[in-house]
Design goal:
Rossmann fold; two-stranded antiparallel sheet; 5 helices
Length: 234
Amino acid sequence: MKVPATGSFESMDDFVNKVKTITPDYYQEVTRIINRHLKEFVDEFGRKPNLADIGGAGVFPFDITIPNKICIIDIFQKPHHIILPDNAEWVIQNILDEKISRNEKYDIVIMSGLLHHLADKRNNIRRNLTLCLKNVKNLLALRGCCLIFESICPPYFDTLQDLLFPIYSRILKGVLKFPYARLLSLKEITDALNSMNYHYSMLDFKQIKQHYCAGYKVSSKIYPIRYICVAYYT
């Protein structure tokens, strides 16, 4: 099976700094949650965890000194201005590749703002979501944890996006040079987790008033999304 193309961030030369500048409150909350899990892992197991950050683009929303090893898995080359710490590597791979495999297993896997970019040229968001979650499970070590940070849309908005996807996806990819995107509803995410019998829990996430949208800051009054954090376990 050919891995579906999900676009690229070619329009964003300095994505890491721009996204942090636009939504600092979001990354403060993400960092708080991830660091708490990292420290709890050290306390429980008496060792540093191996961590994989899928689609994080080198943002590093956590204390890089806590993990033993860090693996960034992304679909594009590492930007030249990003300097990796000694305990990190950058692997070019698509999480939708059905043959995805790593010799290393990870105690904690992070996906921040990734799920809505799983859409491809023909949308296929639900199918790709299921495939992504299956592949992540194959990367997790025994008693591992995956932390999903995602912006979700109201229930009615998922159907509207499906109807308009052929139009707005061309604008995203062709004009803005941005990845394909299709926001998921909470039900779509939990349905996918339930269908695979994954044990998961919803973690508290403080909502923010300004959102990142295709390189711009947008008020929550205009862009009706909210943020969630889901933790699921092996």
